[in-house]
Amino acid sequence: MAEITISGYGDDLTVNGVRIGDLSPREHEEIENRYGGHNYHPLEDVVVSHVSNSSTLICRVPDPSEVRAYVEKEIIDSLCCYSAVNQGQLNDMIVKAVIAHLEEERIPTVPRSIRHKYMSAFLLAATAITEMDRVVPKVAGVEAPELMFKMARRWGYRVKGIPADKAIIVGARGNFHGRSMTAVTFSDDPDSRSDFGPFLPGIELVPFNDPEALENLFREKGDRIAAFFAEPIQGEAGVHVPDDDYWPRVAELCREYNILLALDEVQTGFGRTGKNFAHQLYGIKPDLMACGKAAGGGILPVSFVAGSDEVIGLLTPGSEGSTFGGYPLGAVVAVYAIKALVELNLAEKARIRGAQLMDRLLSIKENFPDKIKDVRGKGLLTAFELFDERRLDGHKVSLKLLEHGVYAKETHHTTVRIAPTLTISARQIDRIADAIHEVIAGL
Ligand SMILES: Cc1ncc(COP(=O)(O)O)c(C=O)c1O
Q1: Which residue of 104, 142, 246, 432 lies most exposed, with the fewest beta carbons within 10 A?
Q2: pTM value?
Q3: Beta sheet of 288-291, edge-to-edge order
């Protein structure tokens, strides 16, 4: 039998004689390289230890004097776990609810085959915040678009009358919906797809922000198309914001051709873009919507699909399920994540702080027109794009920002996303902008 000893908490947590509080950033990296899959490229020489305030992290970095294994440094978190921590780290309302739930209520986990009383609270809160008829809980973000995809196909066959196995779901180029086989079938990023085929049939892509291309496809194959499936603003692609009239036109086309509008709001939802959900920026309403990330308040993975009676009403026992989808602790966390979103006015905060950040980013662009190609965003989902030159590499910029006390991470080499918590202060926004200014000036 394998020999294993585990003891202690925090820095004293010791596994088979290795105490984690003793490890240097380099040793953490070596353990990950030796024992993990190499599916991420984290910033070098930095390890997060704990949270300081709702928008900052305490990190361990190499000790310049090389006497200790590391020194600690506070940094502003400008990525906030890809928008999973909109409510701020360790949000008080959510943490209190979790502690009370575990210590007083004492019901972490039961399966969906027996009712638990917190599901009602979750369904009431989630349908109210999304203004949708029904909600189905899942766990990881990717599971929400995955279910949305299945729902759209089922609606295509049972309501629209598409011949069996002939349904098409249309996606947008540059999309990101996660890492399941459905999501990577949608993807047109070679890194996500290489040697994972064969892919799912029945998916076609059109350029994002191009209503004419969509209309042409609808005209050609509309009878077989069940849904247009897209992010309202493309986050992972580098924060691509469509023209203001794009979504109203798409919604009109979907109505005209009897095609569902299925929006993946896993990254754009929960206040991130200045509205509770990004589609509200454009005055439209989808038939289906996928939520995740901040649906779990940065505490637990929680996701869900919200939608109309007509579509979600097609689910039948056995057709879908998830052991942890909507389990009591997850349900309570989601309810309090929604409470924090509403009571802390997070969408409005994102709008105000986002405007402050955008002003600063635009003036940095004006100061360095030869370095910054574009600045984009809505609310606190923002990014700046560098010209594609060797000296302007996004990974190098991320490392330099870290030296200036800001954590941000490049996406697609030339773009750096800035998406801090929605609880961030005006001073912290200024500190992020000052750091960006200094780093860009030094390139
Ligand atoms: C729009 C969108 N959908 C789905 C996902 C997948 O979420 P997860 O990584 O939690 O599975 C992401 C993650 O970045 C996303 O941005």
Answers
A1: 104
A2: 0.97
A3: 134-138, 303-307, 288-291, 260-264, 225-230, 168-172, 203-206
